[in-house]
Amino acid sequence: LWVRNNRFQTDQDHSTDTYRAFYTDSKPFEFTGNLITLSPHNLAPGTSGYSMIVTFGGASPTRRSLIANNMLVHPEGGPVSARAMLIGVESDHLDIVHNSIASQIQFIGTFSDITFANNILLEPAEGVLVDLVGAVAPNGFRSDHNIYAAGPTGTWPNLFRRNGTTYTLDTWSSTFGWDDNSQQQLPFVVGLNDLHLMPGNTFTCPPFAGISTDIDGDLRDPLQPRQGADEPMPGLGIADGLSSTMQVGVHPNPSTGIVTIHWQFAHAQPDQVVVEDLAGRRVVNLPIQRTDRSVLSSDLAAGRYVAVLMEGGQRLAATAFMVLPH
After folding, report:
1. CA 152 to chain centre
2. DSSP string for 166-196
3. What is the bridge-based pairing of β-strands 2-4 and 94-97?
4. pLDDT of 47-90, one tens digit each?
5. 321 and 307 Cβ atoms separated by less than 8 Å
6. 53 neighbors 38 (Cβ within 8 angstroms)
7. Of 320, 116, 161, the residue nearest 237 (C-alpha)
8. pLDDT for res 233
9. Distance between CA atoms of 167 and 131, rounded to whole angstroms?
10. Beta strands at 293-296 and 303-311: parallel, antiparallel or unpaired
11. For the chain, what is the total number of helices (H) and then of strands (E)?
12. Which is higher by pLDDT, 80 or 165?
């Protein structure tokens, strides 16, 4: 079974415990290059809101299953209240690599042969990102070179849980030997509704055999690719997928006060600059003060933001910046 290069949105029922978008019974499968947008929800009090986007049943050491280059994102306008999990594991022999997930991930079952590597997990709420429920054979769960961030500033410490006990990245690594080379940092992305990487990220990971392109079909760096589903195009000061005729930057970055948003363009003229938070909510509208820059003096709360140049209501280019506590 191959599920490749699809774009879909979960329905309202994904807030229930029994929701399954895809369920593979007992055969190997590949789930690659898919963009999954979660539906917004208003859950009733006491509703757990756990759901599995992919639940898989079977594979073998000689015919492994693969989940790679997928993005699980929030809808336009902000986070959803339901906690959607990308994976529900009921079997073994699975590689989960180079995915960008704006949510938690849960593994349920008995594990003897699972690789979880080179992923980005970004959750705006303070909570666990990786939840293991079940038994793990020696060397049965291999997790490393991932990027984790939870909470508004990405610094929520208790990122992991195993059978009810929570762990920080350090204690997770020291206790189980998992994620020794993983990092906790807030990645620069376009937003929770678009996890393409922005300029300014410094993390890289070892290549994973067979994953030579990203979700967009762009070639990955053969020696030091980026974590997550997106391999940004080299040399551009803009987000991958946006116009390459315009470059935009923010100075100073990070900042504790006034910042200058500046740009260069070839064939476009922005008529508005907007600042969004990582949930995609517009927090500031700036007029165009000069043909190549605009000054932001608004007292933004500490956190990560995205400066977006607009023309006629269309996004031309964007870049991320950070505001430090002040």
Report:
1. 14
2. EE-HHHHHHHH---TT-EE----EEETTEEE
3. unpaired
4. 445 556 766 656 666 778 899 999 988 776 566 655 556 666 66
5. yes
6. no
7. 320
8. 58
9. 10
10. unpaired
11. 1, 29
12. 165
